[in-house]
## 1
Amino acid sequence: MTHRAAFLAAFGVVVASTAWAAQSGPSPAAPLSPVDPKALEDVPFSIDGPAPPVAPATVARDESGRATVRAIRLAQPLRLDGALDEAIYTSVPPISDFIQVEPEEGAPATEKTEVWVSFDDDYVYISFRCFETEPTRVVANEMRRDGNNLWQGNDVVGFVFDTFYDRRNAFQFIVSPIGGRMDGQITNERQWNGDWNPVWEAKAGHFEGGWTVEAAVPFKSLRYRPGRAQIWGFNAVRANRWKNELSFLTRIPNALGMRGLNQASLAATLVGLEAPAGSRSLEIKPYAISGLTTDRVATPRISNDVSGDIGFDVKYGLTRNLTADLTYNTDFAQVEADEQQVNLTRFSLFFPEKREFFLENQGIFTFGGAATGNAAAASNTPILFHSRQIGLNEGRVVPIDGGGRLTGRIGRYNIGLVSMRAGDDVESGAQPTTFSVVRLRRDVLRRSSFGVLFTGRSNAVTSPGANSAYGVDGNFAFYDNLTFNTYWARTRTEGLSGNDTSYRAQMDYAGDRYGIQVERLAIGDNFNPEMGFLRRDDMKRSFGLFRFSPRPRGFTSVRKFFWAGSADYITDGADHLETRDLSGEFAIEFETSDRFAVIYNDTYEFLPRPFRIGSGVTLPIGGYSASNLRVAMNFGQHRKFSGNLTAERGSFYGGERTAVSVSRGRANLGSQLSLEPTYSVNWVDLPQGSFTTHLVGSRVTYTMTPLMFVSALLQYNSAIHAVAANVRLRWEYQPGSELFVVYNEERDTWGRRFPDLANRALIVKINRLFRF
């Protein structure tokens, strides 16, 4: 029997087994409903995994660790309270027998986890019962939605839906024992967009032997294939922090760790699911905003200026898998301020996108395997489309009049279109500009793709006229850990011609015991993607890395050792050496999730032009050799006090540099209050002069409920002589609708009156989601 035939047969058994379910005692509150056999006629394709389970079973497994699970139709919605007291939890066998990824790959999980997948006409429900041998040791210190510490510092359960069953893209959902939750989009199993915020609900509960979760995801919040009968990819994970144990529904290689939840190709197959009749979803989200602003740096000065405005966003499902987003008079006043950075290099700093309108389906626009999020800050790979170029210029906000996006899938093609119109800004010199992006990517083989990307802006930044960029790229994945990233791209800027192309070829093998990476990257001197981000141009880069990371059996306190060596060799377009970096690292990952590392770098840097590095210090043209030793200790985020402590010392541009830093620090002061301090100091002694930089900051967060919190980001940066505060209250007063109260202030520490006010603003913004 084929898997397709087995799938249809399994549905027949589901229909026939309704009487069995009724005899097992369902209450009138949530009786099970039979599956309509007509819904089975549009099953789109065969399943990738074992034959579907025969009722009453809800999971079937094969010898390779793959699984097929069955969803249960409900006649009435679940009562979402985390109590797990409805009939389904006694009448339907749970999905169980999770498999360890860490510390013992392939071994049964030491703590039992039970899962149910059910649905009605509006929602897909996922329910967890997590047993604990020592319930008092459960780690739960993050309650707010998308909290910084939720994923790495809490006991959590999570699940993914591969709604197109393409085995490469998915929607991800995470919940903690106290109701903190996180969500994200996974693109091509590699890019994770944690700023996607769909409408869904989750409630956590507790029982004598552990904790529970009930989650409800509306069909309207998801995109999926046409047809009533659906086959989705599905996986579930549980992280037990006090044991530092990670387990999944399916077998996942330990080289992937938590990234295993991103691997849609290794997920189970979910059958029995029926999508509601095909109405097209429509969401309208109007907003109103008012503010009080003072800006003493602007010309002319602004003092206690009262303002108000309105606008709206519209999301319309053209089909179940193609979505149009429209925006008018777009406003992002509620977005958290950027974290300050100290730049001791001659290259541009990268700041990630934080504005919600640009974040959904952001992974579609990723080009050539370029790094995303904070990882892009240290990458030399150009980003052809970086949405922060829209509505921001020279650090100032430029008004966005409106625009739209079209994103989604048609068959094996991913499509992304953007057209936005921004106004002018006298202070930064920005002119009214139209921004356009076209992205098309086709899935090939099992986990690979190739595509094209075009970006254009009607007014360039560097010269009169327009600017555009276009390119082709390919991402190829083989086995579990081997990937190849390639691209070729070109830009067009009036006044710049020739030497305007870039290409990349990278191989990355990321196994658990061994890792190898080889790359060749070239960027022309006139390559100028003004809708993207370019850290440095006029370069040819050759890079190689080898890693050996065994798991010792003789050290009970050590999970892994790391030895890694790399060589980075960069020349300009004329093949003159500009940068050489030879690096060696030894690290220990402990069973407690703490990590100790020692890194040594031997570098050479050529300055082709004078470089102003500090207050009153300018380095002359020339070549500089340096060596640096860095020692780092990372304390696991599940601890009451955690963070990365780093100390380093070495030669630096003909002188010496000593640095100490505390990053990603966190003090958990209960489940509602947290303190996240950061501090870095650089003592630099050069022949041309000496200087010291300080960067001090802290984020203080108080969470009233999982959907309501107040957060204050306080920062001092000696390099720009500024103290800044960003205080935000966010309340999701109903799903998808929010109230924001934001206070921003910046003061100049070198002003005549210390600290002299530079600017401040008090903003109140409210929006309301209407779904049809």
## 2
Amino acid sequence: MSPLRFLTIVVYIGYLVNVGLLFVVVPWSQAWGLMLTMCPTRMAAVLGLPWVRGLLSAFGALHLLLVLWELLHPTLLTPPQAMAKESQDVSGS
């Protein structure tokens, strides 16, 4: 595996974990209320709704599920040549 590919994988997984945790935790923390005080009134009213907070948390949970999927089915770690060979083996059968 090349160093660039490894770095890409690390950055991608790091992004998914950080954004996932951010969106799961922040909408339900005190920081969310502070952020809403800096938003325009109508935007703060919408972002303060529980279902909007839940939607944002679900978006974060989706990111965390993508991390879990990548750990269980490591498509990023498989070299492109091996994936091409697998697809040829399946289509050739």
## 3
Amino acid sequence: MATLARWCFRNRGKVLLIWFIVLIGSFAGANHWGDSYNTSFSMPGTDSTKALSLLQSMDVKASGDTDQIVLHTLGGAKITDPAVEQNVQAMLAKVDKVHGIVSTTDPYATVGGRPSGAISSDGTIAYSTVTFSGNQSTIQLADVKTLVSTAQSAANSKLEVELGGTDIEGTEQSSTGNSEGLGFLAALVVLLLAFGSLVGALLPVVVAIFGLGIGTSLIILASHVLTIPALAPILAALIGMGVGIDYALFIVTRFRSGVRSGLSHEDAVIRALDTSGRAVIFAGTTVCIALLGMLTTQMSFLSGSGIGAAIAVATVVLASITLLPALLGFKPVAKRVISRSGRRKLRASGPVTGEPTGVWARWAKVVEKRPKVLALVAVVIMGVLLIPTLSVRLGSSDQGNDPSSTTTRKAYDLMAQGFGPGVNGPLDVVAQLGSSSDAAAIPKLETAIRQQSDVSTVFSAPVTAESKIVTILVVPKTAPESVDTTNLVNDLRSNVIPPLEQGTTMHVYVGGITAIYEDFATVMKSKVPTFIAVVILLGFLLLMIAFRSLLVPLAAALMNLLAAGASFGVIVWIFQYGHGSDSLGLGGAGPVEAWLPVMMLAILFGLSMDYQVFLVSRMHEEWVHTKDNRRAVRVGQAETGRVITAAATIMICVFLSFLLIGQRPVAEFGIGLAVAVALDAFVLRMLLVPSMMQLFGKANWWLPSWLDRILPKLSVEGDGTPPEGRGYLDPVLFATKAELKEAKAAVSDSGEGSDTRPGPADEDAVSSGRR
């Protein structure tokens, strides 16, 4: 790390040029090839997947995504008025010609001499179902936008036209640009308050922009060879921006500390990278491991999201340990990282030595004196927030929770008003007939389904002796996200269908988008324990190797679970119980997104490891030097308290800024992570962890001797000593001929073995590090 820091510092122009070339090249490549995102919820073996496969085998048109064009007359007009009907029919004819659309239903048509049921009883609301030739992973966004514009062209003073469906929802997803911009602005304000220097505040932001810009472009390119969902760039922006700023912040803080202690700019960069830089690499590695832990779910939606986010984290780590030392190599930048008042104080008072002072030093002494009381307070806070997690219900929110201004929300409300809430999420009951005699069981099946108290309407296709596959459309009485709809799906599968299958060769499956989301939630619940076990085990092993301790990694694992549980409690309270989600414009009470636990736990475990590594690595560094646990914990907390809380505040601002996107799932994600980071940094790392480590004493650093011998040696914090007198031979590996000639001349002039390095008083020589 010292060699890397020195090379980047001395070759700052080259490093900066390389990063610019890579940034521009990756942008150009991403712009040229575009993305190929694939949001796949493939769940082999589930009822809904089997139903979809049967529909595909019967008719490729029936297996494509379906969306709705919802028509609502205004001013007393009726859907059946001749002028309105003429306008609607002309519009549907145009929609039918849109690329990618294979069929469009006519609400005015009759089935067997009876109305189609697509016009409400009061004659003011109707709908047409549009079927695409593929699903979300293959449908072109341009085709969906053409559908929207074509349908809404029929709107006038007497007719309102809205569109609903999963594909339509994709056209309304806000760009992350505004939220990222606000996140960067909030981070800049926090950094200005923390550093008191504009240059010091801008450095972490610039590094994060470079890393995240390249990382996002690489995700776009990777989508052509890997299954990466459309959510991946949002997730990457969310996590990459936060950790990118945080990692640079930790290194810049250590650089400032080195300059204040009297080191030259070059030596300060070397020590910063040889200490905090190591911790950044280690922390980034733990974040990537946690994100890639989503591969254990064996679900492409989550695996692709984890890979995308890991790419972003890897690029910001690389920027932090190469681009940042190069930027600090420019004298005007390095000089102004410390505020003007700080530079005046340094010139007047000289290098700062001794124990840290300030607010966090005083707080560390309070923790040292009252560890039992503060530990109890922290446990009570986390325990209270943990309670709602015990009643979490995983599922999928429907379009009734979209912002009220969107066409999908308006279409959803109109459909519920005209035909009941269940029409927004009908079930497809698909029967596979093994013999001609099975056809006799279909009427019984239809009757049994119609008799269910939660069923509103049942439609079935005609059945003949030659029929091999029969579909029955079931409209529930309740909304797709309702717990009653979930119970209906489970009841049909467990109680209604099995008795009717007995004595026949018929197999019946319950499918449809609502059943797909229910199966997804069930599969996710089964994956969470394995995922948690893998991530915690890997994190435990890494921390045990790094800090040569059993208690430290064990405590970290427990803290991670505690923070995750408490943050989920807040999510359940806001979104499942509905306390505040409506006021945020994110709908009322509903289930927590089924994919949220794994994805959020992956990121949270990584971030929690970050703070644990930065806090404990400084404690361990002090312990190695003094073997005084009380002092090690006190000094470690005092020196990292401000930077950890500043980093956490930045992350909180970044995560909360994603509320601007206006999507409920992303809002759950943002609020959950913001709460988790706040609890982790301000309650766990500043209260519970130091309190427990004060109580445990020397046991914190105990490791069986036999285990110590077999574990690989890994230094996260470096030795923390100034680099004078060590490592000064390796610059020869990167020196130019002119520099070698100058060094030889300096040795011959001053005598062999004499120390010709500059003293702190020689500011120009110190900052350049060239003598």
## 4
Amino acid sequence: MGSRIAWLNSLSRLVPLLILCFLILCFCQDLILKEQVPFFRDLGPYFYPIRFSLYESFRSGELPLWNRHMAMGFPLLAAFQSGVFYPPHLLFLILSFFAAIRVIFILHFLIAGIGAYYLCRNWKFPPYLSIVGALLFALGGTIVSLSNLLNHFQTAVWLPCVILSWEKLLSSRSWKNFLGFTLITAMQFLAGSPELFAISMVFVLIDGMKIRQSVPAISHGKLLSVFLGANLLVLGLVMVQVLPTAELFLESRRHQPIPPQEAFHWSLKPASLLNLFFLDKEIDPTTSKGMRLFFGREAPFFVSYYLGAISAFGVSLWLCFSSLREKITLLSLVAASLICALGSYTPIYPFLFRHLPFLGAFRFPEKFFFFTYVLLLYMALKGLGDLLLHNKDSVKGPFVALAIVCVVWVGLDILSSFNLDLLARFIAPQSVNSLSSPDHAKMVAGTMSNLDRQVVLSLGFLLLIVLAKTKAIRLPLFAVLMVSAVFVDLAWAHKSFLFPLHPGFAYESQRILQTRETELNRFFYFPSGRDLHPSSVTVMGRPTLKESIALSFKNFLPNAGLLYGVDYFQEIDALGRQPYTDFLFFANQLDFTRQMKLLRTFNVKHLLAFRPLAENGITLIHHFPDNFSWLYKVEGTIARVYVVNKAAVENDSKGVLRLLSNAGFDPTLEVVLDRAIPMPPTRQLKATAKIVRYENERVTIATSADSEAILVLADSYYPGWKAFVDGREEVIRRANLFFRAVPLPAGNHNVEFRYEPKSFTVGLVISAATLVALAVVTVILAFRARRKTVQGLKSLSQ
């Protein structure tokens, strides 16, 4: 009988969790039933190609240290956003690529919801309110918006689990809890977003300070020592990722402050705060950007800030019930995070940017809104809990606050209904549409529809709360209705913001080139503006959202062609290696002819543009009206590997590029090195070079030369590459700013380039040693605990 009761109790505790999982799976039903995949912004041209590189490496049984197709060769593992060591990426070993992508998205929504649910339960909220909290976090605007920025999404969803493991550690400072917090924190770190990881650690400290107020035995010293000890262990565990990333950072432009214009891009626009409790946009798949903005022209970093209609009630109730100290503390934190998120819209963040060095490496201040989002959700949930769970002496004030929220929505709805011209004039300056345009009329109609929606939801939530407090309906019915209303609200608002599409077009669409035509030559997208960096796409037409996404794959826009084995010159990694940055600064000031001269020297053979180009040094291959594109062949492109016997020496990147772009420079006869190589007097050279083995981390070349010469491999020069000529190691020189070169004696030789980075080797040793040490300590402590248990049982038996 007792075991049956225990089983029923366990089942009753499991039911709310099963309901939550079911609701999250319903939210992801397009991914499950229709086998669709989210496609928006950076997913197609950036994150999916990187994940595909992981997929190919894992399937071939190699560690993805380097990818030869990206950016003339790129240290894939070192790119933090690749998440090479992130455990969920092991799904690429057992599933097809897009199937693994679907499962990864669903898994992370479940992690967000389940983690938030158990955190709420740990805060003593009842199951139904814990489900509400989990839905608000997992399906709220910020988390759903991050789904198109995969590394940020994967990092953000772990926050509730990190906080929960931290609270368990503080409540019982056992090795088990310490190990749990360390491993979960390491998991979040490896997910790929250092910014959101840092924000999470700030939340951990704030939560620790809060717990310390109720547990005086936890001193500031103990709190900080536990926090720092755990993070030091995390650092040891993830050193295999940290050291290669640090090496890439030092090779990038990020060791210098980012220009303010770029750093402040995607500052939070003050008008976007309307979206906290109101839907200010709608999906429009007939347009290339996929949505219609009511009060703006450019989609923000977070596509949606919407917290759910119930959150407006929750925050209002928190203001009524919370102590003055809590109000001051949390509102100060909200204000500070908002000031940072507003970026260039306030003078404060630019001042901090100039005087705090670490902000110099931080792009897009709007990311700080994640901090605001979490604080507002905490306020909302705590406010709802204070009203629903406790019998306060007076609820008159809180209900007045709830009534005010409803009156505001009703008043705005009535005012807009009777003053459509006023609403239309308010919308017009914010958008690119005139008052008489059809799109503007749709925006007005959409705004009115969403106002009606908020009125219905707010009155419905108010009625539910009144019925619950007056006990007019039973708690189970109230719980079902509350959870259902919150889910419907959030699913209605955000389900379409996943932008799901069936990925078949990535493989089935007609592409502009066959892969065999791109072998050992590089591809270059020539943008419509002055900047040669592929930061934007402008086509002469009006493609739909699906067509615009398909264009990336059909036209091999960087780096979508990685799915087909295309090699790229352009680099779109967030860090940006210094040579590429120097190239952009120099080349953007050149005329078209000299730009083509540089690209020819850099092994670029195919040039794609969304407008016709002056055919000076290039030949039109084909115009693709359906793809809005023109494909050109660059004449006289240098080979991937070649031999010369003449070298100039130049260390300054601008000086190198100036030499390479001069009309008199012939890259087939001469190379520009960073250090001199002694050479005999120049004479006509007879030499050949052929690649016999070309892999990501190993390149073997057969060479022949009738005199001393220099072998040039048109792949990225980067720390960790070693060169061996007939088995004897040679020093690699930087060639033509980007490439690798080694001296060759006369005769036939076998040259091998191998990527063996010390940063990875040292990091792997440190991470392995840390993991072994944790395992040993865990085994020793488990053995001691077992021995104490056995001794205790023996003493009792005696």
